[in-house]
């Protein structure tokens, strides 16, 4: 990774890193945009102090501030956050975020994010404003920091930022070889009871990993989430633990429910479970 050191930042940290903050640069989608914005951070006058840890465009990532220092990118999350700038604009449509240029830039951003998640033990999940304020670990947008702490009015990376695509890309890089789950002693069920899955999702997180309330039915659902790039292979064991809840919440968002709402809380419902079953070959009963 190239390095162009920012002029303005806070040396050192007093609290551990817990969040990754995604920004857009409000700059053109060009091959040299990461370098240009990094140079802007390096030469910024005292009248306008800002920085980020890393800038990315479609072909490069540029380091501006060391992880162990505080970039000035999102007041409220500077002390415990890492700032990542992506070439583009908050006004972009979803289609514009998923054109060839921006998909390449998102891949660059996903690589940086996956490395940070591995290094600092940050779960690959998009936090709601409430979760951010509660001190949970995860990934947020600058807009979430603005809404949580009220210290800025920034709304990037915009309402159409493709969080589902981005989180899936980060997850894929967390599990780069994507091993096939071991063949279980219990075969995945071909018919799944919603009541059983709900009960398992409530009970299994309190049990040792691998101990399952309804193992065969849990395996069917977990394998489907794995196929959707929402659940790592190591958690596909029929035990519906906390990783299952996070993965299912992302599935609910993918089904059209608002992130952070009661309909996207990781608790399976008949509509989303039936949709998952139809796509991945298992029947759902109540």
Task: Tell me what the structure shows.
This protein has 286 residues and is an alpha/beta fold. It contains ten helices and ten strands. The strands form three sheets. A six-stranded mixed β-sheet has the order 1-5-4-7-3-8. Strands 2-6 form a two-stranded antiparallel ribbon. The model has no long low-confidence stretch (mean pLDDT 93).
For this entry, give a set of tags:
286 residues; six-stranded mixed sheet
* Spatial ordering of strands, largest sheet: 1-5-4-7-3-8
Strand count: 10
Based on CA inertia axes, which overall geometry fits?
Answer: elongated
Low-confidence stretches: none
The class by helix and strand makeup works out as alpha/beta
Number of helices: 10
Order of helices and strands: EEEHEEEEHHHEHHEHHHHE
| Overall mean pLDDT | 93
Give Rg in angstroms: 20 Å
> What is the beta-strand fraction?
5-15%
Terminal CA distance reads 52 Å
Question: Layout of SSEs?
Answer:
Elements (H helix, E strand, L loop, with lengths): L1 E2 L5 E2 L8 E6 L8 H11 L10 E3 L4 E3 L6 E2 L9 E6 L7 H4 L2 H21 L8 H5 L4 E4 H8 L13 H12 L16 E3 H10 L11 H13 L14 H13 L15 H11 L2 E3 L1
Summary?
Helices cover 38% and strands 12% of the residues.
């Amino acid at each position: 990774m190239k390095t162009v050191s920012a002029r303005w930042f806070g040396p050192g940290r007093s609290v551990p890193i817990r969040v990754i903050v995604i920004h857009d640069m409000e700059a053109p989608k060009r091959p040299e945009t990461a370098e240009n914005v990094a140079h802007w951070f390096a030469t910024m006058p005292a009248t306008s102090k800002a920085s980020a840890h890393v800038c990315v465009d479609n072909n490069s990532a540029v380091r501006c501030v060391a992880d162990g220092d505080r970039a000035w990118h999102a007041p409220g999350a500077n002390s415990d956050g890492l700032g990542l700038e992506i070439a583009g604009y908050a006004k972009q449509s979803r289609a514009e975020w998923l054109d060839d240029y921006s998909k390449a830039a998102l891949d660059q951003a996903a690589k940086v994010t996956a490395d940070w998640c591995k290094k600092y033990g940050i779960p690959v999940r998009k936090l709601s404003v409430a979760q951010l304020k509660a001190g949970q670990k995860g990934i947020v947008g600058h807009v979430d920091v603005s809404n949580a702490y009220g210290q800025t009015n920034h709304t990037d990376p915009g309402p159409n930022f493709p969080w589902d695509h981005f989180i899936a890309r980060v997850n894929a890089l967390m599990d780069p070889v994507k091993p096939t789950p071991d063949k279980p002693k219990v075969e995945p069920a071909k018919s799944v009871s919603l009541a059983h899955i709900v009960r398992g999702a409530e009970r299994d997180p309190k049990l040792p990993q691998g101990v399952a309330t309804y193992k065969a039915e849990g395996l069917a659902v977990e394998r489907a989430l794995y196929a959707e790039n929402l659940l790592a292979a190591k958690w596909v064991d029929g035990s519906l633990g906390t990783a299952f809840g996070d993965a299912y919440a992302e599935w609910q968002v993918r089904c059209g429910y608002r992130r952070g709402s009661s309909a996207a809380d990781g608790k399976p419902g008949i509509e989303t479970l039936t949709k998952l079953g139809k796509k991945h070959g298992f029947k759902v009963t109540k």
